[in-house]
């Protein structure tokens, strides 16, 4: 293809999400239960107050196409968030994949859930075969330059945060398993609790008051409890006035 002056936009000449495969035939099967539930909890509690909900895109186990020179190269993060883009592709369709040269915005944060089979690649400890695409660490750090990279060990429940500093990831020394991200006005940390009827440590978001951001189910439960307490106070006030309320 001949180059034009000025060059044509990648949006015009490179494949779109409709052209690129949304699944990798060499990676059959579905994620395990933890890889399904943990990203869902991150989705449900990711509500940065300084961004409208329709300008935030979050995804898990979705192909992320990152190199216009090699349009089939992709990674599939366990969870990632992009700020300042529509929730829908071109504001009309659910995405089949996230194509960086189409969207024009890189992910702001990526979370990988460590497991024995992926740990070395997730932490950038594997040597690259020059005949193969780069590993996750290199893509996130050097190609996409994702500002924050988080890894969570699903067996040890260890939480590690890496921040882009001078073009390289520097690990943040954490005094507790929490980390505040000022650009989001949210923090990410390890919460011991019950989610989807499973009690264990989970990774979730917390707000500026250090309270965990509630899921919609938790919000409903909280409202129901507040209403119950309000009704009990009203009954107690009526009885103090010598009025027996009809509570049937």
Overview of the molecule:
It is built from 6 helices and 12 strands. The chain has 248 residues and is of the alpha+beta class. Strands 1-4-6-7-8-9 form a 6-stranded mixed beta sheet. Strand 11 and strand 12 (198-206) form a beta hairpin. It starts with 9 loop residues before the first helix and ends in an 8-residue tail after the last helix. The mean pLDDT is 89.
How would the blueprint of this fold be written?
Elements (H helix, E strand, L loop, with lengths): L9 H4 L19 H13 L10 E4 L4 E2 L8 E2 L3 E5 L14 E2 H4 L5 E6 L4 H4 L13 H8 L4 E6 L5 E7 L2 E4 L6 E4 L4 E10 L2 E9 L9 H25 L8
Parallel strand pairs: 2-5, 6-7
Antiparallel strand pairs: 1-4, 2-3, 4-6, 7-8, 8-9, 10-11, 11-12
Radius of gyration: 23 Å
Q: Give the spatial strand order of the biggest sheet.
A: 1-4-6-7-8-9
DSSP helix fraction: 10-25%
SSE ordering: HHEEEEEHEHHEEEEEEH
Distance between the termini: 79 Å
Major sheet attributes: 6 strands, mixed
Number of strand segments:
12
Salient structural properties:
single chain, 248 residues, 3-stranded mixed β-sheet, 12 strands, 23% helix, elongated
What is shown here, in short?
The chain is of the alpha+beta class and 248 residues long. The chain contains six helices and twelve strands.
């Amino acid at each position: 293809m001949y180059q034009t002056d000025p060059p044509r936009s990648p949006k015009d000449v490179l494949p779109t999400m409709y052209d690129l495969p949304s699944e990798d035939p060499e990676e059959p099967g579905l994620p395990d239960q933890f890889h399904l539930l943990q990203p869902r909890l991150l989705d449900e509690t990711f509500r940065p107050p300084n961004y409208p909900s329709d300008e935030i895109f979050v995804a898990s186990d979705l192909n992320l196409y990152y190199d216009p020179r090699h349009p089939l190269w992709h990674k599939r993060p366990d969870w990632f968030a992009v700020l300042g883009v529509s929730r829908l592709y071109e504001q009309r369709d659910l995405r089949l994949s996230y194509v960086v040269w189409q969207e024009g915005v890189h992910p702001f944060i990526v979370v990988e859930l460590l497991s024995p089979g992926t740990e070395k690649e997730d932490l950038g400890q594997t040597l690259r075969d020059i005949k193969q695409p780069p590993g996750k660490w290199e893509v996130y750090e050097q190609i996409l330059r994702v500002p924050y990279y988080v890894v969570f060990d699903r067996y040890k429940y260890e939480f590690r945060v890496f921040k882009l500093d001078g073009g390289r990831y520097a690990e943040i020394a954490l005094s507790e398993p929490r980390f505040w991200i000022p650009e989001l006005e949210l923090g990410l940390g390890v919460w011991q609790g019950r989610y989807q009827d499973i009690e264990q440590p989970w990774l979730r978001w917390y707000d500026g008051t250090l309270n965990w951001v509630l899921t919609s189910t938790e919000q409903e439960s909280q409202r129901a409890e507040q209403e119950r307490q309000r009704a009990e106070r009203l009954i107690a006030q009526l009885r103090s006035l010598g009025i027996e309320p009809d509570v049937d």
